[in-house]
Amino acid sequence: MIIRLTDHARQRMSENAITLEMVRNALKYGSRTVQTDGLKATYGYYEVAYKKVGDIYVIKTVMVR
Fold it and tell me: What is the pTM of this model?
């Protein structure tokens, strides 16, 4: 799984103590909902907004629910 983080996603991960492994778990096991421009994976107490471009997951932001 190839993951690319935007600067905004890196900042939000740092602010909310969310690790790259947690992001991977959300993408792999989380429930998905369709967004305007991509998808949102919800797993546990956090959500990951992303867009899949080919084989690459572009993480737009990460948030705590």
Answer: 0.92
Per DSSP, what are the bridge partners of residue 51?
58
Q: Tokens in use for 22?
A: 């947690």
Q: Which CATH superfamily, name and number, covers 2-64?
A: RelE-like (3.30.2310.20)
Contact 26, 18 (CB under 8 A): no
- Which residue(s) pair with 47 in the sheet? 42, 63
pLDDT tens digits, 4-39: 999 999 999 999 999 999 999 999 999 999 999 999
- In this structure, are residues 55 and 2 in contact, taking their beta carbons and an 8 Å threshold? yes
CB 49 within 8 A of CB 63: yes
